[in-house]
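#structure-requests
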Amino acid sequence: MPAVDEVLDEPGLSVEAEPKKRAYRYADVWAAISYLALGVLVLIQLWISPGGRVLSSNDDDHGFFSFVMAHGERVVFHGANPLFSDRMNVPDGVNMMANTTVLGLSVPMAPVTHFFGVGVSVVLLLTLGLAGTAFAWYWVLSRHLVTSRAAAWIGGLWCGFAPAMVSHANGHINFVSLFVVPFIVLQVLRLREPGRVVRGGIILGLLVVLQVFINEETLLFTALTLGVFVIAYAALAWRTAVGYVRRMAAGLGVAIVTALVPLAYPLYFQFTGPQSYSGQPFEPGKFVTDLLALGAYARQSLAGNGAIARALSVSPTEDNTFFGVPMLVMIVVSVVLLWRNIAARSAAIAGLVLLIISMGPELRVGGYNTGIPLPFALIAHVPIIDLVSVTRFGMVPATIIGLLLALAADRAPLLPHRKRVAFGIGLALAIVPVLPKPLPVVTADPLPPFIAQQMWRDYVPGNRTLVTVPLPEVTTGRAGMRWFALSGLDYSVPRGYFMGPANPPADKTGSWNAAPRPTSDLLRIAGAYGRMPVVTGADRRAAITDLTYWRAAVVVLVPGTPNHDLLQTLVSDLLEKEPQQVGGVQVWDVRDQVRPSE
């Protein structure tokens, strides 16, 4: 964590000879190349075919962020509303500000999406997110915290490629793109310097704006961590901290005003606009960190064991605190080595506090709730906090570990020879087992000609929708969601995978599904369990009502979907007509049955 005692602009460079400066520049280039190479290695299986493969551990979010990239392209090339999409979940739409739609990345990436497709944009952002986060921390560390480029490289390596980051690379563009965070932290702590109230506050405010449009959850984590850090530092060095209060408070005030000017309307739209919601579709303490996960290895680490990780983790995307026993030892060693550094001690305290918060309302050990209460229970239902998946607070100590390792590695050359060698061996034993493996992928079915060759244009006018069966939902209809994203959102669809109100206006609790409809429920249950329901006249009338609500032009059965023949029979029975075979898919043209009012 940046030292409040001394934040240097360029440690030691002012008096260095030109050859050493040149060596530093080479080190910077080498660091960037090495991080980029490792990022490519992690995503290599997706790079082989960005549009033809999906991340097997999280195809739902892979599909969602493909939609997000396509939306960013439509904002730039079609003038679409960046805060709202009317292309999915017709007729209600999707509040894009209320979803993790990374507008700060998808909009700048629009030319790539437009010319190379959403698949390339997704894998490129995941790769640059990992490498960029690593290099951002390397840059801040090497310029402001340590004198050794090697120590900075180690810190950047861990911050960018820790198990938490690699697990989130399974589709979570928002959580691997943390390259703004180091500069937010730096700017906050530099507000204590004379003459930085206005300039520093404005820079900080602009960084906050950018981070909001990448991931608000990360900004919350950063703010909480800095708050704990400052409190810990003040407790350990009160007299020093008091001297900074006025300048930092003034600078934060400038930052808040600067950020609120561009953010006021987007945030208002997020919390009060159409399809806004409150809370999550689960209790705040449901997904928590297991105590035993700290000493285990993540499934995507070299030493990882899938069976153990599954027992201790929420999902493959949430291996947030799998550090391994050797790393736990090195954390203790690093804290001892840095004990006289108040800033490092305060950072360790902040990491410990956020780790305990990530464990939720009661301690879980080996998959079992012990009943031992934890502090998170006191804040579980605080607004904003109740929007967070608790285990993700564990990403904070994961990052702080990297900073402590860098600071300790920078100090290690001052140790006696034997201790220096022992530190180096310990560092290698701690880091090597958690180095990442390439993320697993599966080959996706190719787009049928009906979609790929845009045959659908003969059936779907601009004000109508294409309804895929299974309907796209949080755990079903993934192929339909993928078709939609790869088409560039050229046609509109009902429902989809996104966050919105569960059943407005009666229930505005956040949900991963669109509000229930009789036909979507009937098709989902039949497809999931393979049981043919008895279709009644009421079911047929409800189907026409729902298709009218969705403004349907055609219903398309996804080839190869589970229980394909059963679903074909069911849809035919509901619509009382047989499908046509067009472009490799079964199509029910319902334009003569469905005439929605405009």
